[in-house]
Prior knowledge:
Layout: H1 20-31, H2 48-59, H3 76-96, H4 103-108, H5 122-128, H6 132-146, H7 151-154, H8 162-175, H9 185-195, H10 211-224, H11 230-257, H12 262-293, H13 298-324, H14 335-338
Helix pairs in contact: 1-2, 2-3, 2-10, 5-11, 6-9, 8-12, 9-12, 10-13, 11-12, 11-13
Amino acid sequence: MPPHREPRRRSPPLPTPRGPLSYEVVTALRTGQDPESVATTDADPFGDDLHLALYTLYELHYQGFADVDEDHEWNPSLLALRRSLEQPFLAALRAAAPTDGTVDTALAGLLVEPVGDDGHGVSHFLRDDGELWQLREYAALRSLYHLKEADPHAWVIPRLYGRAKAAMVAVEFDEFGAGREADVHARLYAELMEDLSLETAYGHYLDVAPAEVLATVNLMSLFGLHRSLRGALVGHFAAVEVTSSPGSRRLAAALKRVGAGPAAQRFYDEHVEADAVHEQVVRRDVIGGLLAHEPELEPDIAFGIEATGLLEDRLAARLLAAWRSGSTALRAARRPEVRPPPPPAGCHRT
């Protein structure tokens, strides 16, 4: 097996705008000027324009963009615009993800795995019927998070206390490879992408990612960058860890079925075992420890769990509607890079 090629980590180019909001953000970053005043009240809180604008502004806190001044991370005008974009998104989440305010109720639905033919999620579809091109699309879209896996959740560490902080750091330590560069989960994901002949450059697939993908990534940054939403970020983290192990098992099976390479399978195999342990730590020590110090945050934790499920369901609906009709789930830009070579004659694939 050839030695692993370290993925390129240079900052990606600015994305192509999708409307007036993202146009103002991209133009401001490209020119170095403050953004013009732009109305956000009528924007779709789950739409492409708002979420690309938010994603672009949030990315200033991660790897940034090529040829963009790094000091824009704390530009007051951009921060004010970001706040005006966050408010309708957060309000829509609170309206669409109702909760009774208890963690036990919010977690209950996540702890029941469907049996037999009752599973209708993305990982079930890919395990049972997914074709290689669909798995490649899925990997490309998920790369917007997995190439910075665990980074958004790290924002919460200085906002926790005692047992919750110690447990959160222990789980994050595993996510970052337990001190071994070769085992950093973001690197394992880049190796998965290499096995699927995908581009591993950070942020490369931003322009093909629909709003439903961007929203799932933006949710983590929204919760992580606001101390007042620390409970919601812990809820998000819990939802991810509870659902990761069984979902990863199905995705590993899907990759094996289509003949993906060992590195592709390793990423999900790693998560099957590790996240089964993480789930217990998160529920018992991260959530339990946080509630021991700040019991008033229980409604926020429950909201984080419910909001995560809401956005994952929206993404699943987008992906499955496209794939079941034989269509791509990607936006038009650069689509040929993600699709595999044409299938043999007589094999239907659109």
